[in-house]
Design goal:
The chain is an alpha/beta fold and 423 residues long. It has 19 helices and five strands.
């Protein structure tokens, strides 16, 4: 007698290199592919990320031969109900390490057997600890331990690994496009850009990054698939390090769930902060008068993405120049970023704010003018996104234009506020 199981897709919207598919195939003759549109998660997601999710789901549905079941509701109710409807004894998933995901999965596991295989990370959060069993809070030693630990080779899976069941009913997604060929995009990056990645990745005026963050966010590709394709050259080493940062921040969140909303370093709870809505609006809209900052904020609004170097600069400006709460900026990013990822976003912001894992924290204050001159030396990036400055030649474009604050003065103020909470 044939048996049916359920594969509940979440942040693993692919069929290649998918351990949960192997586990499902071992335990049943066929499987129903399910994705649950969770209103709680959708409310916290901005339009760019929801639209990209829809593209990922269209792509996955195509890979399953049009047999992906989509349902809306609380997964704690939807998943057990769907499992019962097909007589499934198990539901197969990739493990979720986020605070809400862990809580949600425990609720589902109380109703149906939940089988976790793999995770969205090269090394599952919580696996790497110091010799005394405590977690790492600084990146460099974590990276050494991460490389020593290593990761599994990619799983050999494809759409035929599981015999997919036709769902009795499924909600329709809004009409729209799917995804480009991600394998082809990766190979192009690997062959054409990776050799210069270490040198060009900090240059927003150049097309030198992979732009794979959104694909990794939704698990369209697994990081170990990319790691298996990297060599020992400088570009590969640098890219490997960037993937490690992703695992590191997920590990920090796994050990410190409250850090999604609060300072990891609780000393900074005493920091004096401003609540200036007008300055925050100017920052959000790219009207600070600092061209490199304004270009980044306008790129975010126009594309749902921002170059990583610029993310650090605009974050530093909000916290150190405007003295506004980092979580204001983090919420704005999560609302607009197509690659918005809770662990990476919140801890990237805390890195910039000096309240998180960094070994050399608060006194790093990015100068928005010199950062622009260094990483956008000809001014091409600024002119691309700040049209009123398109006639300003070369690096002169980085000069402040009617700035809302004086950087030197606000830097002194930021350091004074830090001194007041030390000790």
């Amino acid at each position: 007698m044939s048996s049916t199981t359920v594969v509940w897709f979440r942040r693993d919207l692919r069929v290649a290199d998918h351990p949960a598919l192997l586990a499902a195939a071992e335990g049943a003759d066929r499987a129903l592919g399910l994705f649950v549109l969770d209103p709680r998660l959708l409310r916290a997601s901005g339009t760019p990320r929801v639209e990209f999710l829809h593209r990922c789901l269209r792509d996955l549905d195509g890979k399953l031969g049009g047999r992906l079941m989509i349902a809306t509701g609380d997964p704690a109710e939807v998943v057990p109900r769907v499992a019962r409807s097909v007589g499934a004894q198990e539901v197969h998933v990739s493990a979720d390490a986020g605070p809400y995901g862990r809580e949600r999965d425990e609720a589902v596991a109380a109703e149906v057997e939940l089988v976790r295989s793999g995770s969205p990370y090269a090394v599952t959060p919580g696996r790497i600890t110091k010799s005394d069993g405590t977690p790492y809070r600084v990146f460099t030693p974590f990276k050494r331990a991460w490389e020593d630990h290593g990761w599994r080779a990619p799983a050999h899976t494809n759409r035929s690994t599981v015999d997919w069941v036709e769902p009795a009913k499924s909600e329709e997604l809004p009409a729209g496009e799917g995804l480009p060929d991600v394998t082809r995009l990766w190979r192009r990056f690997r062959d054409e850009k990776l050799p210069d990645y270490a040198e060009h990745r900090d240059r927003p005026d150049l097309d030198g990054t992979s732009r794979f963050s959104a694909f990794l966010k939704w698990g369209v590709v697994h990081p170990r698939t990319l790691l298996a394709d990297l060599g020992g050259d400088e570009g590969s080493r640098t890219f490997r390090s960037e993937l490690c940062w992703r695992d590191f921040y997920a590990d920090v969140l796994w050990h410190n769930p409250d850090s999604a909303r609060h300072n990891l370093d609780r000393r900074f709870d005493r920091m004096a902060l401003d609540e200036d809505g007008e300055r925050f609006a100017a920052w959000c809209e790219g009207r600070t008068g600092y061209p490199f900052v304004d270009a980044g904020m306008r790129q975010l609004l126009a594309e749902g993405w921002m170059h990583n170097r610029v993310r650090m600069v605009v974050a530093s400006f909000l916290v150190k120049d405007l003295h506004l709460p980092w979580w204001w900026g983090a919420r704005h990013f999560m609302r607009h970023l197509v690659d918005g990822d809770l662990a990476s976003n919140q801890h990237g912001w805390q890195w910039a704010a000096g309240t998180g894992t960094d070994a050399a924290p608060y006194f790093r204050v990015f100068n928005p003018v010199t950062q622009g001159e260094k990483f956008d030396p000809d001014g091409d990036y600024v002119r691309r996104y700040v049209p009123e400055l398109r006639d300003v030649p070369g690096r002169r474009v980085h000069r402040p234009h009617d700035p809302i604050v004086d950087h030197a003065e606000e830097r002194r103020e930021a350091l004074a506020r830090y001194e007041a909470i030390k000790g």
